[in-house]
Amino acid sequence: MRPGSPSAEERRSATEERLRAAFTARAALVTHRELRRDEPPRGRAWGTHRVRGLVTAGFGAAVAVAAAYLLVLAPGPAGPPVPEPPARPPGVVERPVSPTPYPAPVAPSVQPGASSPAPVRTP
Description:
This protein has helices at 8-29, 48-73.
């Protein structure tokens, strides 16, 4: 806090004093002639709030009737459901062997006296 600045309590009391003075000045301007009683209400008025409530209730009733019709009165399916045939016939399907784009590897020839290499398997 800077030296010379008012504390929070002093600021609060200054604000309160200004508000009290403003309210007192405003109260002095009001006379008994300005304070009149309003006339009492006559019966129930149809205000926006009441009309909105009736519209909401009517909309809710319409939604309830529509839901009841769809759930109870709407015709259901004609009979039991017909089973769908499978997408392809069941069973094992053999696939044709396609020719390979590369030639099969040739097995190297075996020379006498050399150890025999492992046989080469072709797919």
